[in-house]
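[audit] Reproducing an earlier prediction to check determinism. Same input, same settings, fresh worker. If the tokens differ from the archived copy the diff job will pick it up downstream; this log only records the rerun itself.
[audit] input (241 residues):
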Amino acid sequence: MSSSRDAAILEHGFTPVPRDVDEKILKGAKNMKDPVSLSTKDIDFPSEPLVQKVQEYAKAHLNEQTFNHSMRVYYYGCAILQTQFPHWTVSSATYAIACLLHDIGTTEHNLHSTLLSFEFHGAFVSSSLLASLSAPQVQNDAVVEAIIRHQDIGTVGTITTLGQVLQLATIFDNMGVHAEMVHEQTIKDVVAKWPRNGWSKCFAETIRMENGLKPWAHTTALGEEDFPEGVLGNKLMEPYD
């Protein structure tokens, strides 16, 4: 393997980690260590022009609730990386892009314009966008892989580091899973900046909309009723909804 390929794999979060967070990563514990309080001011949002253009695109195409969720996922994921897995490596720019675009397939237009599951169509939309913005192909690949697999929750095999962080942060915001990874004050600060505004109800409705339009959708793998009910039953985030 060439040194340039090794460097690209490391930079863009392609290093494989187990899919099984509870047993193979946490080994039965609630977290790797007690989380520390981090504010949004403690976590830098990338200033690269590419990230700024993707953020503008996401803000223009996502509704406010989904855009805010995408931003919360960025900050929660960074907090998880910093406090739980500081040895994991992924470019903050690549992670930010994946966060901003991971739910692009859930827009009204994108849900109705294809028979593909939203993660897959969203990945293709994202790939086209990144190509039009001249993103490096390896960064494009990393984002596409993470978006396709961000609901690929399971216990067998591996996933990219980028994909695992995106999974951890999305299910933390959506269902309150692995609540002990993020400090309560961090949650309060992130929600103050990027309000939920009834996100649990909004996302549960989106799940049911896709499952109604596409009863074969990959989202059904998480449970046709268990998943939306789990989102609505998010006790960790209930005080902020």
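[audit] rerun output stored. Observation attached for the diff report: Strands lie at 16-18, 158-160.
[audit] end
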